[in-house]
Specification:
It contains 13 helices and 12 strands. It has 351 residues and is of the alpha/beta class. The chain has 3 domains: 44 residues, lambda repressor-like DNA-binding domains (434 Repressor (Amino-terminal Domain), Orthogonal Bundle); 135 residues, 3-Layer(aba) Sandwich (Rossmann fold); 149 residues, 3-Layer(aba) Sandwich (Rossmann fold), CATH 3.40.50. It has a 6-stranded parallel beta sheet with strand order 2-1-3-4-5-11, with helices on both faces. Helix 8 runs parallel beside helix 9. The longest helix is centred in the C-terminal third of the chain and has 18 residues. It starts with a helix and ends with a helix. The relative contact order is 0.12.
């Protein structure tokens, strides 16, 4: 293994000079720097990343906690596999520019306080900071982690005391799609497929639904059911809707995410009903498959990759300077396709 001493010997300089060149310090004459760099290239010297990190009191590792709900094996397409795939792409796009490593762990939302979540105590000792993928983790546990390392919660509740939060504007997005159904399509009888009760995203989308309906007293929420952001829970919601309201169907089903909307559409179509001819269906997220459905899904596009990228930027700022944005809210976009009754609008789709 080529060492710092080998480089110093070939370049005819001290090991301290080689160290200054490796660390990009200014106190080296240009001719000397060039000679050291040539020696490094000739010998194939690779600096010891662990030693460099130690000198900076850094580990150069970021932790990412993906929190998902327990599902049956046949329901494995839970939100984690689509939502987290996009978020992780955003994190990875940023992290590679800083020559850092990403340590990822998946944990069950129901596991707070169990050995599953206590593994985070171990993670906090191995990383410079932690990204928590969704706001399912209890505040007291976030406070415990944040006492050790900087923490950023993605899709969390703004105002979280112990951690920075990066989230999409769920309230305005949900309000926009419901207003579209009422104002542009004249829908009056709505059915809501809600997300998990403790999901900050689902809470904001639910509050927006209630807010818009209060401003349109002629409209009625004829029913609501709870899902877990998975396709199967959407199918079950559609089956429940048909069992309860087959004689007087809602005019539109508002789903708290795309995967549940996919399940609702499948249940309706299996029952011989047309979307949007018999019932309009909308989603939220704009996962990649949404535009390939039949009909293509009207939804709200939240910038999932940007959520990951921005969360990393905030965390890295905390790690590097101790400063960061306490709350970041990213805008969303109404994507009009055909499942609401519109003709697809490629200019709005943007894909």
């Amino acid at each position: 293994m080529v060492t710092l001493f080998d480089v110093a010997r070939l370049a005819g300089v001290s090991t301290a000079t080689v160290s200054r060149v490796v660390h990009g310090q200014d106190r080296v004459r240009e001719a000397t720097r060039t000679r050291v760099q040539q020696a490094i290239e000739e010998l194939g010297y690779v600096p010891d990343g662990a030693a460099q990190s130690l000198s900076r009191r850094r580990k150069d590792v970021i932790g990412m906690v993906c929190v998902e709900r327990e599902v049956e094996p046949q329901d494995i397409e839970n939100v984690g596999l689509l939502y987290y795939d996009e978020v992780l792409r955003g994190v990875e796009a940023r992290i590679r520019n800083h020559n850092l490593l990403l340590l990822i762990t998946f944990m069950q939302a129901e596991g707070v306080g169990t050995p599953d979540f206590r593994r985070l105590d171990s993670m906090s000792g191995k990383v410079d900071g932690i990204l928590i993928g969704e706001g399912f983790v209890a505040s007291h546990y976030i406070e415990r982690l944040a006492a050790r390392v900087p923490v950023v919660v993605i899709a969390g509740t703004p105002g979280e005391r112990a951690a920075d939060v990066v989230a999409a504007d769920n309230f305005s997005g949900s309000a926009a799609i419901i207003t579209h159904l009422i104002a542009d399509h004249g829908k009056r009888r709505l059915f809501h497929v809600d997300g998990p009760p403790d999901s900050p995203d689902a809470i904001q989308r639910r509050l927006a639904l209630e807010h818009v309906l209060r401003g349109h007293p002629q409209c009625q929420l004829i029913g609501s059911t709870q899902g877990i952001f998975s396709v199967r829970s959407g199918e079950q919601a559609g089956e429940e809707l048909l069992a309860r309201h087959r004689g007087a169907l809602p005019e539109a089903v508002v789903c708290a995410n795309d995967q549940m909307a996919i399940g609702v559409m499948a249940a309706l179509q299996q029952a011989g009903l047309g979307v949007p001819g018999d019932v309009a269906v909308t989603g939220f997220d704009d996962v990649p498959v949404a535009r390939h459905l039949h009909p293509p899904l009207t939804t709200i596009r939240q910038p999932m990759q940007e959520l990951g990228a921005m969360a990393f930027d905030v965390l890295y700022s905390r790690i590097s300077t101790g400063k960061g944005e306490s709350d970041v809210m990213l805008p969303v976009q109404l994507i009009i396709r055909e499942s609401c009754g519109c003709t697809s609008a490629p200019a709005q789709d943007g894909k």
